[in-house]
Write a structure and sequence with these properties.
The chain contains eleven helices and ten strands. It folds into two domains: 132 residues, Nucleotidyltransferase, domain 5; 176 residues, 2-Layer Sandwich (Nucleotidyltransferase, domain 5), CATH 3.30.420. A five-stranded mixed sheet has the order 3-2-1-4-5. With 345 residues, it is an alpha/beta fold. The radius of gyration is 21 Å and the shape is globular. Helix content is 40%, strand content 18%.
Length: 345
C-alpha cells in the first residue's frame, strides 16, 4: 500500500489540532480543540494551562482525525509532521512527544516544521503554482514579522515588532473596552460601528523608512491613556458610552492596520519582490485584507492571503511537511523544541 498521506500535529500555543493531508495538499480530515474557555477568564493565554490542556486533548484529537480520514496510519502515512518552533515551550513539548511516540509505534519518519513558515504556506492552498518567491508577512497574537522568502523554507528576516505582536495589542485593547477574549474579532466588529478619525492614536515607527521594524506597545498605551488618563487605576470600561467604545475600537484598529500596511509596502519596495503572502490570525481581519488589497493593486504586485479558516492556528498548514518529505529530508528522533522567533537564514 502506498504512503500518500501525512499526519500533522499542531500544539504551538493554545489550539490542539491534527490533520491528514495527501500529496496534492488535499485535506482528508482536520480537527481542532480550542482552549478559549480555559483562558478567557484570564484575558489571555496562560502557558502552563495551555500545556496541560494539550496533554488532555492531543490523543483524542489525533484519534478523531484518523477516524475521519479512514486510513491505516501504520501503512498509509508517509510521515508524522509536527511544529517544533516557535511557540510556548510546554505546548511545543506536548506535540513533539506525541509525534515521536507515534513515529516509533508506527515505524514511520518524523518531520519537524516551523510554525511561522507554515502560516505563510497556508497561502499555497488552492493554488497549483508555487507562491514563492515572495515577501512573507506573519501577523498573529504571537508574531508580527516580515521575511523575504526564496522558497518554502529559505527565508531572510526583514523586520518585525520590537515589543508586542499586533494580535496581542488587539487583545489587550479589547480588555480595556470590556470585550470578551479573544479580543481581535470583537474589536473589529465594534470598530465597524465607530468613527476611526475620532482619536488620533500614534502610528509608531511608520514614518521611519530606514527600518522594517514595528512597535505596538506605545499604541496600546496611548489607547489606555485616552480612555482613563495617566496614572489612574480606578477606571472601568462600563464608564464609556457606546459611541466612545466604538470610536476607540475603530481608531485603534485603523492605527494598527496603517502600521502593518505601511511596513508591508516598504518591504515590497525594498526587496522588489512582486508577491506578498500574508498569514496568521490577524490576517482574518477584514479591514487589513481590504487595505492590503488596495495597496498591492497600487503597486502592481500580487497579493495572496491565507483563507480565513486557515489564519488561526491549525494543523492543515502542516502540509508544509510535504516539502521535506518529497526531498527525503526527515528529522532525527532526538530533535528538541526551539521556542524562539525565526530570524531567517
Amino acid at each position: 500500500m502506498s504512503r500518500d498521506y501525512l499526519l500533522a500535529i499542531e500544539t504551538t500555543c493554545d489550539e490542539t489540532a491534527a490533520a491528514v493531508i495527501d500529496r496534492d495538499r488535499r485535506v482528508l480530515a482536520s480537527a481542532v480543540a480550542s482552549q478559549q474557555l480555559v483562558h478567557e477568564r484570564f484575558d489571555g493565554v496562560v502557558p502552563e494551562l495551555a500545556a496541560r490542556a494539550h496533554l488532555e486533548r492531543v490523543v483524542p484529537i489525533i484519534d478523531e482525525t484518523l477516524d475521519q480520514a479512514g486510513i491505516d496510519p501504520a501503512t498509509e502515512l508517509a510521515a508524522i509532521v509536527v511544529a517544533t518552533e516557535p511557540g510556548l515551550p510546554g505546548s511545543l513539548l506536548v506535540g513533539l512527544a506525541a509525534a515521536k511516540a507515534l513515529a516509533v509505534a508506527w515505524q514511520i519518519p518524523l518531520v519537524a516544521i516551523n510554525h511561522v513558515q507554515a502560516h505563510i504556506y497556508a497561502c499555497q492552498f488552492g493554488r497549483t503554482a508555487s507562491i514563492f518567491p515572495c515577501v512573507g508577512f506573519v501577523v498573529s497574537g504571537g508574531h508580527t514579522n516580515l521575511y523575504a522568502c526564496e522558497s518554502a523554507e529559505q527565508w531572510t528576516y526583514l523586520g518585525g515588532t520590537i515589543d508586542d505582536a499586533v494580535g496581542e495589542a488587539f487583545d489587550k485593547v479589547a480588555v480595556m473596552l470590556g470585550l470578551p477574549y479573544p479580543g481581535g474579532p470583537h474589536i473589529s466588529r465594534l470598530a465597524a460601528e465607530g468613527n476611526a478619525s475620532r482619536y488620533a492614536f500614534p502610528r509608531p515607527m511608520l514614518a521611519d523608512r530606514s527600518t522594517l521594524n514595528m512597535s505596538f506597545s506605545g499604541l496600546k498605551t496611548a489607547v489606555r491613556y485616552q480612555l482613563h488618563g495617566v496614572g489612574k487605576s480606578d477606571w472601568q470600561a462600563n464608564q464609556l458610552t457606546a459611541e466612545q467604545r466604538a470610536d476607540t475600537a475603530a481608531s485603534f484598529e485603523r492605527a494598527a492596520i496603517d502600521c502593518l500596511v505601511g511596513k508591508a509596502r516598504l518591504a515590497l519596495q525594498q526587496t522588489r519582490l512582486e508577491r506578498l503572502c500574508v498569514g496568521g490570525g490577524v490576517c482574518a481581519n477584514r479591514l487589513l485584507r481590504h487595505e492590503l488589497k488596495q495597496m498591492t493593486e497600487r503597486l502592481g504586485v500580487e497579493l495572496l492571503l491565507a483563507e480565513p479558516e486557515l489564519c488561526t492556528d491549525n494543523a492543515v498548514m502542516g502540509a508544509l511537511g510535504w516539502e521535506k518529505i518529497l526531498r527525503g529530508e526527515f528529522t532525527p528522533l532526538d530533535i528538541d523544541i526551539q521556542p524562539g522567533l525565526l530570524r531567517g537564514k
